[in-house]
Design a protein that fits this description.
- This is Acetyltransferase (GNAT) family protein.
- This protein is an alpha+beta fold and 340 residues long.
- It is 36% helix and 27% strand.
- It is built from nine helices and 14 strands.
- The strands form two sheets. A twelve-stranded mixed beta sheet has the order 1-2-3-4-5-14-6-13-12-11-10-7.
- It is elongated and about 110 Å long.
Length: 340
């Protein structure tokens, strides 16, 4: 039995199409050409020239690597292939010269993926609900007014410094894209402020950040840095105005707003949001992962030795069976010769 792991190319699509993943609707089938190029890295584990598992990572802002796209063939599960391919993806991300942080984002109910992430040394960081709705009009207070838009780039940057980049600020994770939150750093915000719309209230004590993005459907991404969103007059009126403008271009546009457990609990009982299974962000800095590698290297070496020993045992069993077959054939030949 031969086994290899390599980076996938467009030529490997047929291998993936032959996998039995158990997924009724797998976006990776039609997006395969995109997720193997650019900042996307996809690796496959082959057993006897058959693709049995794959995983990879995407680089964001040159310094963040998000692992994902784990798939295993149903016929080959419980062989450790999922853990093996994710560990390989992690090790490849560690080799990227500019990456400073590596993580993964998985739904709370996906216990199998969480177990894999635990095995490869990626601890949970935070839990977020992807709150979605096509209208927040029910949350608008009648006496509220629209917040003023900020267009000056230096003022936008100042809001980021006063919130997420302030060491004393309690939120340490920023939702850069739908499905992709990351620990804050100056690099995380580089090149994005021009594309984001900032609005601030009358006394300039609060702001909200809005932008549109497409992830299978069009979203108006909402980022409010504080926990007191239910207490801010004009906030939901401002969000609703931008949502309606986005829906004029694409009527199926909905809000995407990452909420912590604490924030989700603050919503009124009749809130308009759909709150699906929350996502758990896992991850560590490259520095921490590399320091962990020193202590884990013995464990990995031991695992490798165990794998080699198992393969040797399998080989010995094959040789033993072949020897028995040869002995039987030799005895038959001997008996036949004696009869003659």
């Amino acid at each position: 039995m031969s086994k290899e792991i390599r980076r996938l190319t467009q030529d490997d699509l047929a291998y993936y199409q032959n996998m039995q993943t158990g997924l009724d609707d797998d976006y990776m089938l039609w997006a395969f050409h995109r997720i193997i190029s650019g900042p996307n890295h996809l690796f496959g584990l082959f057993v006897s020239d058959e693709l049995v598992a794959l995983s990879g990572f995407t680089v964001f802002k040159d310094h963040y690597a998000m692992l994902g796209r784990l798939r295993t063939d149903e016929r080959y599960r419980k062989n450790g292939y999922g853990t093996e391919i994710v560990r390989y993806s992690l090790e490849q991300a560690l080799l990227h010269p500019d990456v400073k942080w590596i993580g993964a984002n998985t739904e709370q109910h996906n216990k199998a993926s969480q177990a894999v992430l635990k095995k490869v040394g990626l601890p949970p960081v935070t839990l977020l609900y992807a709150a979605q709705t096509d209208s927040v009009s029910s949350l608008i207070k009648d006496d509220s007014t629209h917040w003023a838009e900020i267009t000056d780039i230096s003022e936008k940057a100042d809001w980021i410094r006063r919130t997420y980049l302030d060491p004393s600020f309690d939120k340490k994770v920023f939702p850069l894209e739908a499905y992709y939150p990351f620990p804050v750093s100056e690099e995380l915000f580089e090149g994005s402020l021009d594309d984001w719309h900032f609005y601030e209230n009358a006394d300039k004590s609060r702001c909200v950040i809005l932008w549109e993005e497409f992830k299978g459907m069009n979203y108006l991404h909402v980022v409010y840095p504080w926990h007191d969103f239910m207490e801010q007059p004009g906030l939901f009126r401002t969000i609703q105005k931008n949502l309606k403008a986005a829906q004029q271009k694409d009527r199926d546009t909905v809000i995407w707003w990452d909420l912590s457990e604490r924030e989700a609990a603050l919503l009124p009982t009749d809130h308009p949001f759909d709150l699906p299974s929350p996502w758990i962000l896992h991850g560590l800095s490259k520095e921490a992962l590399l320091s962990d590698d020193v202590s884990e290297s013995f464990e990995r070496a031991n695992t490798l030795i165990q794998d080699v020993e198992k393969e040797l045992q399998d080989l010995e069993q094959i040789i033993e069976k072949e020897t028995e077959t040869l002995d039987a054939l030799e005895n038959q030949l001997h008996d036949h010769t004696n009869k003659e």
